[in-house]
Every structure is written in structure tokens, then in C-alpha cells.
Amino acid sequence: MISPRSYAILCMSGRIVVTNSRYVSSVSRRAISLESNCPTISSSSVLASSTFPHRNVSLSTHHSPSLPRSTHLISCRIIHHHENTPVSKVCSDANTALRLSGLKSGDTIAVGGFGLGGTPETLLNALSTWENGPSDLTVVSLTAGVDNVGLGRLFEAGKVKRMVSSYVGENKFFEQSFFTGKLEVELVPQGTIAARLRAAGQGMPAIFTPAGAGTMYANGGIPLKYASDGSVAMTSEPRPTQKFDGKEYVMEYALRPEVSLVKAYKADTRGNLIFRGTSQNANPDCAVAGKIVLAEAETIVEAGELDPDEIHLSGVYVDHLILATDNEKRIERLRESSAGQVADITGPRGRIVKRAAKEFKDGMYVNLGIGIPTMASNYIPDGVHIELQAENGLMGLGPYPEKGGGDADFINAGKETVTAIRGASAFSSSESFSMIRGGHVDLTILGSMQCSARGDLASFFIPGKLLKGMGGAMDLVSSPSTVIVTMEHTAKDGSPKILEECTLPLTGKAVVDRIITDMCVFDCDKSGLKNGGLTLIEIAPGITVDDVRAATACSFDVIDGDIPLMEE
Q1: pLDDT in tens, 203-252
Q2: Which of 556, 558, 552, 516 is nearest to 537 (CA)?
């Protein structure tokens, strides 16, 4: 018989019944251990750490109508905290990690890196020299690298059947292999690759993106493989599309590779990764997507030595880790400044560059393409502050480094060495294109091979002759930002580059807001608000409207009144 003036503990159907909670706080650990094999407990009315200080117990209480009001039912769950040393994911070398991955012929692998920045050289070198190792691989990577390095060695070893990439223009062996039928190439916008990888890591089967809508990329027909005689043997299939709020989007399936190879600056033994600068690029995206992930790091420390707030990628995504032993970190395009001096750009090219710089407005976030657009950053007007974005993962691009200061971990989208301004930030490829796709970048300036009267843009491919890839251009021009094209008015042979309809595969359909050439400036009515077409709004000194008409293969309107001269 339990006295109502003393505590009472009864076990009922796996629960604990506590009565007369006035005395519960006096319950001792030993007393409970003697009481019907029940653990220490108190009622909800007096529950406190002093009553029950043991951290390995979880409690919940409720009243049962079948018992007296002073009686409570309390559920108890014992929680075990282990302070054991975490199991290390470090492997002795790349060969061991590759064998543990289970990689086999015909598999798909995702490889981090952009150009030569952030490429897992150690793992790639081991894979390319693996005798009787996996072959007929499909490789997913932002770019194809260059000859004799990283991915280039994998191609040269004959282990790749298909490449899924956004840009392959710098790898001559790769290009030759494609045009002679030895390699399949699936060109995909850079931001789309990153998003498809990220989607796989998030358990999403597909995404919708505006990149490539209305172009051959969405409609199908881009050569995937050539025959040995140079004819097209295989082309891309049409991609599903759907309209949202009147705008067309392309459906893209998630990319789920069997194995991902990534490169980090620093790691701990549990696989937590830290990246550095633009070498982050698509490495996190490849990691979250892979069924099995192999990471290499320049430095590995014990678990617990990294500040949790500094970790870019959780070790939950990493299966095996090695110390990077091949750290050549070759710089693809070393560009250095001369003590802050910038050589003045003159002539027709200089006219384009200087006019383009006048598009910058204070406070803008701007993405500049390779070549002429990038040069415009040397002529930012006085009193104007902008932040330049590199789609490979940096906001706050600075000038080229001074002599001897080139850093392989800080490059722009043209693979040139750069610096970062104060307040700059580095991020992954998927986040970079989220900024672009989401309209957070105000202005995009890029080059082109052709433009049409309605604002179409062609810049990435000449069938049978030139294989470059769209890079990030399709994502950039399909974004909500203002899009300006800079280019010479005519090709080297004198043929017009501004046409009624582009004859080359489109990078974007009705996407261009303004065209700046060495002869004039056109505004494009890409939305068709004024029945479409071009309007001449500025003209170069010494050039007449008739000169412009003779060099332009489409009709255009002329601004009312005197035509302003292009300012330099």
C-alpha cells in the first residue's frame, strides 16, 4: 500500500505513474532503482534539472482520466550519448579510394572543377592510369579542361564514351575526338548542369529552367556524335517544355552519377570540406549528387579541428577521402597587371569597349563575358561603383594580380587569374546561377557571333567547324537581367553579323536588349512592344546611316531627330 503522503511510482503498460507530486523532487536515483525496476522520474508540475539531472533521459507527461487528479502518466526514453572517436574516412591513396567506390565500365561520373581550377587531379590521374580499369564512362563536368591535364588525361586514355559539359573549347584532343566520331558530346548550359546535380542531391527528379528555351538545345538536333567521315551520326532529342506565366521553360532531369570526384582545399577525417576561392565551383554540386563520393583535399586535419561554421560541405556527402598528392594547380591563363597601369584600347575595338562601359550604373551587380565585355571594366565612369560577378563562383572580381601574384584558386569565367575586392564572396556554381536565374544580377554584357532583328543571339556553335559550347551564356541571357551584346558589326570577311534571322544555332531567343558595335548602337524590341525590330540610337563618328544599312542584313528604324554620336 502506497502512502498518499509519500511519493509513489508504479509501472503500468511500460509507463510510470507518479502520485502526490509534492514529494517528487525528493526522489533519489537510488530510491528509484529499488522501485519496481523503474527509472528515476518526476511529475510535470515539478520537473526540473535539479530533480532529474541525467541528460540521457527524455520525458513526457500526461494525465489519465482513469486515475486520481494527482496522478500523472510519464513516458520515459533513455538516450545514449557516445563520445567515441569518429570513424575516419581517409584512404591511403587514390587507387584504394577508386576501388572502394565500386566504379565500373559504363558508369557516369561527375567531376568537380572549372577549367583547371578545383579539379581533383590526384583521383583523375589514378583513374586515367588504372590498367584494365573502368572504361566507356560518361563524364559530367562544367568544362573539358585542357590537353594532358586532369580530364584531358582521361580522354587521352580512351576511358570516356560521352562527355556532358557546357564548354569544351580549350581541349584540342577532345575537339578532334568529337569531330572524328571517337567521342560523344552532350552540350548543356553551365547553370543547368549545376542545377541538375543539385536536384539529384535534393531528391528531386527534374527541374524547369528558362535556359535554352526556343533554341536548338530545347528543340533537339544538336550533334551528339559525328561519323568518321565527318557526317552527323547522332543528334540530341527534343526536351520537354512547359509554360509558366506565359514564359517557356525547359524540363531537365536530375543528374545522378554513380561516383563523384571532388577537390577541396581542406578537410577533416570525417569528410567535412572547405573550399577556397573559385576552386569551389561545381565541387559541392557534384558531391551532393553522387551515389558514392570520393574527395581529395590539400590538407586533412583531425575531426573537431575545423570550426563548424567554416565548413562548406558536410561530411555526410563524402564516402572516401584522400590527401591530394598531385597538386600542380596549373594556371590556364596567367594575367597580371603592370603596377595598376592599363594599356589604352584604341580603334574600332576600343570604341566598343568604352561605349559599353557607359552602361554601368552605380550599385549594379554585373556579369561580363570573355573578351571585349571584360575589357569594359577598365573604363568604369568616375563615381560609379559596381560589383562584378564571375559565374564560376565569385562576386566582387578585382583587377588582374600584380606580377608574381597569380593564384590558381582565383580565376574568372575566362580562366584568367584575378583578385577579389574587399567584401567579395565565393560560392558554388549552383548558387552562382541561382543569383543569375533569380534576377539578382542587374546587367549582362557578352559577345556574339550573330544577332537577329528581334534580339536572338547565336554564340556557341558552328556545326561541323567549331565546337565551343554555350558555357553560362544560355543561363545569363534567359535571366531577368538587362542583356547587352558587344561585337564587331561585320565578320572578318565583311559579311554582316546582324541579320533578319540568325543562321547559326541560337544561344537565346528574343533575349537581347541592346547591341553595341564599332559602327553604332541598336536597341532591340525583344518583347515586341513596338512590333519588334531594331532602332538605331547612336552612330560612330564618320559613319553614316547608309554605311550602317550596307553592313546590316536586316531593316531597322532610326531614332527621331539628330542621331547622337557614340561617346568614347
Answers
A1: 999 999 999 999 999 999 999 999 988 889 999 999 999 999 999 999 99
A2: 558
Q: From the candidates 252, 391, 402, 567, give the one annotated as an active-site residue.
A: 391
On the question of pLDDT at 415 being above 80, the answer is: yes
Q: Are 278 and 394 in contact (CB under 8 A)?
A: yes
Grid cell at residue 79: 538516450
pLDDT per residue over 70-108, tens digit each?
Answer: 444 444 444 445 556 678 999 999 999 999 999 999 999
CB 266 within 8 A of CB 303: no
> Residue 252's beta-bridge partner residues?
207
**One-letter identity of residue 540:** A
Q: For residue 127, give the H/E element and its range.
A: helix 121-128
φ/ψ of 548, rounded to 5, equals: -65, -45
Q: Where are the alpha helices (DSSP H) in 299-455?
A: 347-357, 372-375, 429-437
* Rounded Cα–Cα distance for residues 7 and 46 (Å): 13
The predicted structure's pLDDT at residue 528: 76
Pairs from 542-545 (Cβ < 8 Å, separation ≥ 24): 543/519
pLDDT of 169 reads 72
Distance CA 142, CA 468 (A): 12
Q: What values do phi and psi take at 283, rounded to 5?
A: -60, -50
Reply yes or no on whether 298 is catalytic. no
* Average pLDDT along the chain: 86
Q: Please write down the long-range contacts of 96-102, taking CB distance under 8 Å and 24 or more positions apart.
A: 96/322, 97/123, 97/294, 97/320, 97/321, 97/322, 98/123, 98/126, 98/127, 98/130, 98/133, 98/294, 100/319, 100/320, 101/259, 101/292, 101/294, 101/319, 101/320, 102/258, 102/259, 102/292
Burial of 242 (0-12, 13-18, 19+ CB in 10 A): exposed
CA distances from 445 to 323, 372, 460 (A): 40, 9, 15
CA separation for the pair 560, 557 (Å, rounded):
9
Cβ atoms of residues 467 and 169 within 8 Å: yes
Grouping H, G, I as helix, E, B as strand and the rest as coil, residue 541 is coil
Instruction: In whole angstroms, give the CA distance from residue 141 to residue 193.
Output: 8
Kindly report, residue by residue over 12-56, the tens digit of the pLDDT: 333 344 444 333 333 333 333 333 333 433 333 333 333 333 334
CA-to-CA distance for 475 and 206, rounded, in angstroms?
17
